[in-house]
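Changelog note: in this version the structure field was regenerated for every chain. One regenerated record is shown below for reference.
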Amino acid sequence: MSPFSSSNSSHLTSGTTHRGVPSRCWCGNEITMFTSKTDENPYRRFYRCVQGVKDKKEKHMFRWVDDALLEEIRMIENKHKQLLEDVNVLRKMVVDNVEVQNKLMQEMKQQMNKEMNEIIQQELTDTKESLEKSNMKTVCILVVVAASILWLCGNVV
């Protein structure tokens, strides 16, 4: 393997840059990891397109491994931060939703209690009226029975 020159950036001739650990070059070839044998960067690992190793005139993907991994870590940290923010937003939404649901449940409970009290009151009123009618009949029957007994007693004596 021939020595490679050092570079601190990714190169893509298509005009796009790759962030983090690369997987393919702009030409479509897979990326391979190599080790630098230059005096400037001895034993420093880098990603390189296989075609770029063969054809040094075109600017195929080149990326130092340590730079790519640091950028990958930063991207993951940013994503983690965004996910934490999203979780906090969702947590607040859930708490707010639970509060609204609790308020609605309280209102429904109060409405049900009011309706139940009205139904119970109506049933008690109906039962009272029915009982009063029943008691009135009983009193009337008792009066008739008492009058009959008195009449019988008066006829017998």
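Spot check on this record: Helices lie at 50-54, 65-156. The first helix runs from residue 50 to 54.
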